[in-house]
Amino acid sequence: QVQLVESGGGSVQAGGSLRLSCAASGRTLSSYIMGWFRQAPGKERECAAAISRSGVGIYYGDSVKGRFTISRDNAKNTVYLEMNSLSPEDTAVYYCAADTGLTRRRCYPSDYEYWGQGTQVTVSS
To answer: Is-contact 79 119, C-beta < 8 A?
Structure first.
């Protein structure tokens, strides 16, 4: 199985940017579809973005579309989430996730088997 470790979280002012990284080990990342999810206190986990094995198929949640960019570098076994124009509503723990299944025209937590421990993103106004 693959192990996932997120990094790059922290505190940022509204309007700022952060770039999250998810490093994979144990397995080759190119074998997995990847997703970024986030969970704010008291709220359900929601999808921010997902990306196919090749990096061609990409999905964004409505709340982040136009502001976030997901990418992957399979040679580095890493997936990224570049977050721009951040607002306090983006404050959450961000998780990366992986699955060996098919690329989907959706992004649900239940579709992903392997998860990182998360990294905190806090956006202040």
So the answer is: no
